[in-house]
Design a protein that fits this description.
single chain, alpha/beta, Rossmann fold, 7-stranded mixed β-sheet
């Protein structure tokens, strides 16, 4: 009986968000925030690459392994275009990508890492799945909480709004934990990181 083959460790980490100062710090841009923190932590400088339609950097992760960081600058609903361009250039498989993005279905203070899955209504992930041609790539969802009001406009206002002061304090801890989870995924695989961090609840900090 053949042994189960472990999926390859991710090496391209993509944070989803919208470009421009007016979106900086909003709930929908938590993926960008994580990439910016990784850039500083791992000393990987980011610069705009037109061929990738995004801010991109290459460097080394926690075990001196090659790591690539990407912030698509296409606006959220076309994020997959940028991801596809980088994959084609680096000759990577979708399984080597790990996407970080916001999730209204998770409360503030929670995060979830998965090896695959649907877009769950997230426009950035819909684009990613369409351009990568598969749902089989790891992702890390960061909870931003549900909109307090119903309706499409209320949801848009929620995701494009800023965190409250209390939420911001929690999100600072979440981003710190997210960095540890991503490092663990690179060092020991996504499944190990899932077992360690998917049950974390930082909402009471």
């Amino acid at each position: 009986m053949a042994e189960a083959v472990s999926p390859p460790a991710p090496c391209l980490i993509v944070g989803l968000g919208n470009p421009g100062d007016k979106y900086a710090g909003t709930r929908h841009n938590i993926g960008f925030e994580v990439i910016d923190r990784l850039s500083k932590t791992w000393s990987i400088s980011l610069k705009e690459e037109r061929r990738f339609q995004g801010e991109y950097g290459a460097g080394f992760g926690p075990r001196r392994e090659k790591v690539y960081l990407l912030k698509p600058l296409t606006y959220m609903n076309r994020s997959g275009q940028s991801m596809r361009a980088v994959l084609d250039w680096l000759k990577l498989s979708p399984a080597q990508v790990l996407v970080v993005y916001d999730d209204m279905d998770l409360p503030v203070g929670r995060l979830r890492m998965r090896l695959s899955g649907s877009a769950g209504g997230h426009n950035g992930m819909k684009s990613a799945i369409a351009h990568l041609g598969t749902q089989e790539f790891p992702r890390l969802r960061i909870g931003i909480g549900a909109s307090p009001r119903e309706g499409e406009q209320a949801v848009v206002s929620h995701v494009l709004g800023n965190f409250s002061k209390a939420e911001r304090s929690t999100m600072d801890a979440v981003v710190d934990t997210t960095l540890r989870a991503l490092e663990r995924a690179l060092l020991d695989g996504v499944e190990k990181a899932m077992s360690l961090y998917n049950s974390a609840d930082l909402s009471d900090r």
